[in-house]
Design goal:
Jelly Rolls; six-stranded antiparallel beta sheet; three-stranded antiparallel beta sheet; 9 strands; globular
């Protein structure tokens, strides 16, 4: 079992004003999912993008908007968001405090540090 405070995980600046912490990964023995905690500063957003995997998101604090190619939805503490595969999306902090959320992705995602490391022969 792994138990840490999320602030103990290494912060990575994804963009100016967007910090990502990978708190549970394949390196921890998690075979299926990677848990990340994001913090977006007020007035900042993630890149608008899409990819072939899903996201499950839980808003911990702050407020903002979840934006897809078809909708803009207000989000805040305790909001739960499902982003299906290939859906264009981003998250915008339009509040006055940091927007912080948990985001889960599959470990098998290529180019992610969450990926399951290759096994040694």
């Amino acid at each position: 079992m792994k138990v840490i405070k999320y602030l103990e995980a290494k912060p990575v600046q994804e963009l100016p004003g967007v910090i990502k912490r990978e708190v549970i990964t394949a390196a921890d023995g998690a075979p299926n999912f990677c848990m990340r905690v994001f913090q977006i500063e007020p007035g900042v957003s993630t890149h608008s993008h899409s990819h072939p995997w899903e996201h499950e998101v839980f808003i911990l604090s702050g407020r903002g908007m979840a934006v897809s190619s078809e909708t803009k939805t207000l989000i805040g503490k305790d909001s739960v968001i499902f982003v299906p595969p290939n859906e264009h999306h981003c998250f915008i902090n339009n509040g006055r405090t940091p927007l912080r959320f948990i985001c889960l992705i599959p470990n098998a995602v290529k180019y992610s540090t969450c990926s399951i490391p290759p096994t040694k022969p």
